[in-house]
Specification:
With 426 residues, this protein is of the alpha/beta class. 42% of the residues lie in helices and 13% in strands.
Length: 426
């Protein structure tokens, strides 16, 4: 590859984001990616962008690649619903499912503290924080039962039936998924019934609209998690699609709940927010939330910003459930997108796709690094890259030449863990 000149803008401080905010314009949904789940600078820059979107463009909530029940604890904290004396560290300890570092880290703590301060200001519209993901099957069932403890009727009965169906599997999603993977007798009817009955009952009790929404969302998670785990064990790309369709459904529900003027900030891995149609994911029949949002809301209303770096360090595990550790991220593969940007000069850069689309080389599929929660730096020559047409997959790209591992809390993980849920490069 020849390293022809690319148009880019410097990326050194918050003021350098002015051109990005201008480019975002009136978009209703802004998705901010990351090339790993363990890099400090990705979290820091997404925080800086999110603050400006909230303060200058009136964005309503942040929704992330995290479990609904755990993220809802953050939402309660920043909205002032927690008991007096609750600290941000108390809230982030809820993220005790591996990989704990993904949301249980000091970079997220800084964001959460700012969101609470913002919400505590008088005459300020309170901003929310929510999880989009689908893994919290048993946690969501538990939250529903807590909500319904002092109630009666069909919703409670349906929830108890759902619990009864899952009880033989000892809160182990993998055990459940394997048991039902090739038979028709499973718990899908029970969780669907629970969702329907809960929806019927709670719509008549609008006194605490967000608590009602929380209960209904936990029921929806239970429905889609049940489908996800079955699809995962059966193999193929369908489990990925179940997951990202759930994320999109959750985003739609949040936008509707917050009203016609609501605006959403999404934090997820590049493999979710970057339009899948312009990667090799499309050949495998996979979709993602970035693609789905563009299709449903139009490209003018959805802004996708990817992130990447050339070298540095990252927090990840050697295998699923392994202890987290700081790993070296070697220089990017020769001929990759990150290698190209590094050879233009070892500086951080902001690139806008509208300025790149006339350049032939970047309209071809280029290798683009993607690091998952399970990572082996020695595989850089063979894996960890997603072929990508950059200016179509994203609307903007933030390139950081050298990055550092994020700073995790040390959180004790739950005894039983779900099966592997992230593809190798996500």
């Amino acid at each position: 590859m020849t390293y022809s000149k690319l148009p880019y803008h410097r990326l050194e401080n918050k003021a350098d984001l002015d051109i990005l905010l201008d480019d975002i314009g009136d978009a209703r949904i802004v998705m901010l990616g990351e090339a790993s789940h363990g890099t400090s600078e990705y979290y820091a820059w997404r925080t800086a962008i999110s603050k400006r979107l909230i303060e200058e463009k009136g964005f309503t909530f942040i929704a992330v690649e995290g479990d609904w029940p755990d993220c809802y604890q953050i939402n309660k904290f920043i909205r002032g619903y927690c008991k007096p004396g609750t600290k941000v560290s108390d809230v982030l300890k809820h993220f005790n499912r591996w990989p704990t570092w993904m949301w249980g880290n000091w970079e997220v703590a800084a964001l959460v503290e700012w969101l609470k301060e913002n919400n505590d200001r008088p005459n300020t519209t309170k901003v929310g924080f929510y999880g989009l993901d689908v893994y919290s099957l048993w946690d969501s069932l538990n939250q529903i039962m807590k909500y319904l403890e002092k109630k009666d009727g069909h919703a409670v009965k349906a929830a108890k039936e759902a619990f009864k169906c899952f009880e033989p599997y000892s809160s182990d999603p993998q055990e459940y998924a394997r048991a039902v993977a090739y038979v028709s007798e499973d718990c899908e009817d029970e969780v669907l019934s629970m969702l329907q009955e809960l929806g019927k009952r709670e719509r008549g009790e609008p006194s605490n609209a967000e608590a009602v929404f929380d209960a209904e969302q936990n029921a929806l998670v239970a429905v889609n998690a049940e489908r996800y785990y079955k699809a995962m064990v059966r193999g193929g790309g369908n489990s990925w699609n179940v997951r990202d369709n759930h994320m999109m459904e959750t985003l739609n529900r949040l936008l509707e709940f917050h009203g016609p003027d609501s605006k959403a900030i999404i934090w997820e891995h590049n493999t979710h927010i970057g339009d899948a149609r312009f990667t090799d994911m499309a050949r495998a029949g996979m979709v993602n939330i970035g693609q789905l949002a563009r299709e449903q809301y139009g490209r003018e209303n959805v802004y996708l910003a990817g992130f990447g770096s050339y070298e540095g360090s990252v927090i990840a595990g050697d295998s699923w459930g392994a202890p987290m550790k700081k790993m070296e991220v070697p220089p990017a593969r020769k001929g990759s997108w990150e290698d190209w940007l590094h050879n233009l000069g070892a500086t951080d850069k902001l690139l806008l796709s509208r300025e790149l689309r006339e350049i032939t080389e970047v309209r071809l599929q280029l290798d683009h690094r993607a690091i998952g929660v399970v990572y082996d730096p020695n595989r850089e020559k063979y894996g960890n890259y997603v072929p990508t047409i950059i200016p179509e997959r994203y609307d903007a790209f933030l390139y950081l030449d050298e990055t550092e591992a994020l700073r995790p809390f040390i959180v004790k993980t739950k005894e039983k863990e779900p099966p592997e849920m992230y593809p190798a490069n996500e």
